[in-house]
Amino acid sequence: MAKAVLEALAARFPGDVYEPYEGVGGDDCIFVRKSEIASVCRFLKTEPALAFNMAPYITAVDYLGVEPRFEVVYNLLSTVHNHRLRLRVKVPEGDLELPSVTSVWRGADWFERYCFDMYGLKFRGHPDLRRLLMYDEFVGHPLRKDYPLRGRQPLVKEREIGDIFRGPGPAGRDG
Amino acid sequence: MATDSHGMGGRDPQATPGSFGAGEPARPFEGQHHARGYEGALDAPLKGRQMVVNLGPSHPAMHGVTRAVVALEGETIVEMKLDIGFLHRGFEKSCENVTWGQCFPYTDRLNYVSSILNNVGFALVVEKLCKMEVPLRARYLRVLTGELHRICDHLTLVAAMGLELGAMTVFLYGIEARDLIWDRLTEICGARLTSNYVRVGGVSRDCPDDWPAKVEQTLARVAELRETIDKLLTRNRIFMDRTRGTGVISREDALDFGFTGPCLRASGEPYDIRKAAPYLVYDQLDFDVPVGKNGDNFDRYLMRMEEMRQSDRIVRQCLRQMEPGDIVVQDFRYVLPPKPQVYGTIEGLMAHFKLVMEGIKVPAGEAYSYTEAANGELGFYAVSDGGGRAYKLGLRAPGWPMVAALPHMTKGALLADLVPTYDSINMIGGEVEQ
């Protein structure tokens, strides 16, 4: 199974996937070119022989000082074939935009928001790309390696919210 | 109070806007008028503006501090938005700035009801990177204590679910059972909640001599309490009406949203990491994986009840199969040497100093390890640069996809159904908000 997945990918997307390798503990990993990640994921999900019907974990890493600086990691699972695969996508600092995979797996929604929140990566086509754990006024992206460990965030003005009795007030975040 | 000529009331100008009675006919005093004037009024649809209700961040019916903004049409949820992050402590950032060994107390605080399962999940990713083989007895102890904690986690869910649906007795029984298990765990690791029991390469302490017998006694009492809860809830009319057919999620949707663990199995997908990719000693243990059918709150509750029975079986098997032996690898690159060696030999002293000051040197590389925690797949994605600290430690919280899917699961449901749904997915703020 392990080799079959990587071979099927290489046959279908020549040039867009590269450097397949066996990770520590026997995990299958492969690099994917940034622009093709959504179509690769769609192929992995819809091809019956592969059937990666779930994306349990998507995260990002900041390799500060290495070019390209960021990397998005997609851990995929097929409960049909009981098989896992790890896709790695390199994202340069100059162009932080990459296609969203929320249209492939709806579960990717919050993971991509998390990556946006913590690393500032922008997922094109995401339905609601807001910060997830931090508040909207937060400055910077805390999991970047150059985000300082100590310091203070600027104070934030209290938000105006709509009055549920007297009709909507100034448009807030919740409409 | 103004009334019109028909005697069935008019608008009450005195009422506060938005309060009960505003814009509604004022109620007549006499019963007989009431019967005549209000014919069919009970069945008439209530036309009203959509109302936005803010549930939380701190609300008695919400677990932890989560804010749900719910748009209501009458009592029906039209739309819901979740606002999380009130409990964010920066787990990943903290772990990237301490040594590998110092991450264990942080993992305790993820799912604080079943901390040993988190400890094990984290230890496994480090051991995967180090390509380390852990002694057999340590593996048994990890499974044993982990399964005890799984029972605790499920007991908490069932107890809280009963409490929030009006069955306080169940809560008391559940918490008694949970604390009995925590007593046993205190004897082995010294803390009720934040166990910090597992180490890279093994576990911190062996169990006391009389401990296995005490665990069996405790399990017997816990089983008694569990069956009492079962009798109180499973065929209870009120409980069934509140949970059956509410918070339904189909198998396809559950997979699409990334559900794992009991919530996925309740929807009919028989995926359990303990069976699909056995780790530690799960391949040598005999246990069943319950699978549900409807994917509603009731099935998710039944999953927990059955899994507690299976964990009970696993613990008893571990107690029987476990043999004396090492509880930690004898490799001082990873494990602190015994104290006589630290104080008596220069090698022991150096190893101790290096481990405490610099941390374990984990070979450079990246790995993703996944274990079956009480709520589903607990994943750690670790990147090491060869130093004593994690370069990146990503956490895949088991409860995360379920919370993310909550707006989908409650759309079109009654506001009251939000409470059992929120219970049955078992959101733990500590792990979801990291």
Automatic annotation (TrEMBL), chain A:
Cellular component terms (Gene Ontology): plasma membrane
Domain called NADH:ubiquinone oxidoreductase 30kDa subunit: residue spans: 32-152
EC number: 7.1.1.-
Catalytic reactions on record: a quinone + NADH + 5 H(+)(in) = a quinol + NAD(+) + 4 H(+)(out)
Keyword Magnesium appears in the UniProt entry: no
Tagged with keyword Translocase: yes
HAMAP family: NDH1_NuoC
Purpose of the protein: NDH-1 shuttles electrons from NADH, via FMN and iron-sulfur (Fe-S) centers, to quinones in the respiratory chain. The immediate electron acceptor for the enzyme in this species is believed to be ubiquinone. Couples the redox reaction to proton translocation (for every two electrons transferred, four hydrogen ions are translocated across the cytoplasmic membrane), and thus conserves the redox energy in a proton gradient.
Protein known as: NADH-quinone oxidoreductase subunit C
Protein species of origin: Anaeromyxobacter diazotrophicus
Organism phylogeny: Bacteria, Pseudomonadati, Myxococcota, Myxococcia, Myxococcales
Gene name in the database record: nuoC
From TrEMBL, chain B:
Swiss-Prot/TrEMBL catalytic activity: a quinone + NADH + 5 H(+)(in) = a quinol + NAD(+) + 4 H(+)(out)
The entry's keywords: Cell inner membrane, Cell membrane, Membrane, NAD, Quinone, Translocase, Transport, Ubiquinone
Record-given protein name: NADH-quinone oxidoreductase subunit D
Gene that this polypeptide is encoded by: nuoD_2
Family recorded in the similarity comment: Belongs to the complex I 49 kDa subunit family.
Topology of the protein relative to the lipid bilayer: Peripheral membrane protein
Organism: Anaeromyxobacter diazotrophicus
Gene Ontology molecular functions: NAD binding; NADH dehydrogenase (quinone) (non-electrogenic) activity; quinone binding
Keyword Acetylation found: no
